[in-house]
Amino acid sequence: MPDRRITSLIAAAALAVGGALAVGATGGEGDSREAAVAERGARVMPFSLDATTHVFDATATGGSQRVVADNPRDREQIRLVRGHLRKEAVAFRRGDFGDPASIHGKQMPGLAALQAGFQRIKVIYRNLPDGAEITYRTGDRALASAVADWFDAQLRDHGTDAAKGNEERPDGCQVRLSRGSASCGRRPG
Q: Comparing C-alpha atoms, which of 35, 148, 133 is closest to residue 84?
């Protein structure tokens, strides 16, 4: 009988290790979250996530988000990006952050503060040669921090479809991109 118990324990341990290895090989929860975000995003955003990149820049007074076509000659993606961001800017000015919430979840960091304080945030849309940009400006440090948190949540969720641009966070940390990595140093002063 003791041999049977040991054999059963070894078999159970082997199954547990095998299951853990399988989860690690497929990337685990992060990949499934990114896939779910991409699926929900395709229902909200008319452009291709595979053909565009979201770029987020937090600043001491808010920040900007850009969506740019990976191929600057892809006129269709640029047209779709511009139409979508123009519509989003109008909604954000009214405090309607429903589209990002439907993609990233209603509990995403920064979202509740942005919805509550939307009247103290100036939302500016502009075309870019390869896409479009929405800039958020506020004199309220807490709202600027909420914008940074909201950007960080989107960066995590979009994975390789997003990038952090050069940024200066409300806490005075200045982030600069260099060869794909970010570094934080204090603002010159």
A: 133
Q: Is the CB of residue 10 less than 8 Å from the CB of residue 130?
A: no
Contacts of residue 76, defined as CB under 8 A and 6 or more positions apart, other chains included, come to none
Q: Which residues contact 4 (CB under 8 A, 6 or more apart)?
A: none
pLDDT in tens, 81-108: 999 999 999 999 999 998 887 876 778 8
- Global pTM value: 0.69
> Checking DSSP bridges between strand 167-168 and strand 162-164, what pairing results, if any?
unpaired
CA 13 to CA 21: how far, in whole Å? 12
* Alpha carbons 146 and 152: distance in angstroms, whole number: 10
